[in-house]
Amino acid sequence: NNSSMGADVALTSRDGLNWTLHQLGTNLAQLGAVRALTSSPSNFLAVTAFGTNLAAQLSLDGITWSRPTRIAATELFSATWADGLYVAVGVSGTNSLIASSPDGSNWTSRVWTNYGGLNAITCGNGTFVAVGEGGVAFTSTNGLDWITQLLPINPAWFPQYVNTVAYGNGAFVASVPGHGGPIFTSADGAHWEAYLNPPITWWGVSEVGPEVWKMAFGEGLFFAICEGGNLAASADGVTWVGEYLSGGAFIPFNDLACGNGVFVTVPPLWVYTMNFSLTVTRGSPETSRVTVNRGTLGQTYKIQRTTDLRGSNWVDLVTLTNTGSPANWVDVGATNYPRRFYRVVSP
After folding, report:
1. CB within 10 Å: which end of the chain, N or C, has fewer?
2. Which of the pair, 203 or 188, is modelled with greater confidence?
């Protein structure tokens, strides 16, 4: 699940492509100004600001939130959960700050001097990775003891900081914000490779530089908040496909998280519910068996196909109705193509 938050609304999505807008109403009165968002197998956790104090708040669905628990009177910009531990990062004065909690309610903070603020944190393959000012990267195998190193940032690049990091498909992916800002990838969080001007496709138009501000990984893909409040997705963190979510209007999203089939962004608090799960297996003879899971009971949806993900030429194959059981459909025409890609959409 994936989720996103903002001032007075929440967006939820179960696939990062189809989103549902929720007006929070009185639920928002419980939620402070959101600075960071993450999820565990049981909860979403938001780091929220109440005046000069930062607090942690928990939610089962990204819409209704618990009462705030104070973390510290400082700045925290990102949070993650792994191995039974919530970890949040930020800045204390001009120093790096890392706070940790086993339950989201009881927190311990540590400060490192001689390093700037930390902007983002993630965990993958048993390693926590936090990134920040000047390209500094902190790594830890337990969320408590940390080693520092630097990403390969060119002195000519601007700005001189790494703003986001996520882990998925066997790799850490980090980014410097701004047009043409480089993408960094690493298998272990310690050794990084830089990609300047990574490609992105917006509705069939190819450009360079996705301008990634925040990232999260879910449902097999990296999802990113880009300049202008638009979203993008990538399988490897290097080549991206964009979605104009904001309709041309600037939406200042602060963070993005994915958990239990829901995407949540902040702010504004948008909670996106992933309506479908799609699985494709090779049949015999050369056919593709497409299986659709989840979704709203009684809702109709379309299976579409394309032979080239770089374009926008998706073609409808079949319209199905969700009966509560996985829906299977066999594409006998797949034998005529060396490869075919599939997606499921709501009509």
Report:
1. C
2. 188
First to last CA, the chain: 21
HEC states along the chain? CEEEECCCEEEEECCCCCEEEEECHHHHHHCCEEEEEEECCCCEEEEEEECCEEEEEEECCCCCCCCCEEEECCEEEEEEEECCEEEEEEEECCEEEEEEECCCCCCEEEEECCCCCEEEEEEECCEEEEEEECCEEEEECCCCCCEEEECCCCCCCCCCECCEEEEECCEEEEECCCCCCCEEEECCCCCCEEECCCEEEECCEEEECCCEEEEEEECCEEEEEECCCCEEEECCCCCEEEECCCCCCCCCCCEEEEECCEEEEECCEEEEECCCEEEEEECCCCCEEEEEECCCCCCEEEEEEECCCCCCCCEEEEEEECCCCCEEEEEHHHHHCCCCEEEEECC
Contact 160, 174 (CB under 8 A): no
Cα dihedral 87, 91, 97, 103 sign: negative
Residue 121 or 51, more confident? 121
Mean pLDDT of 139-154: 90
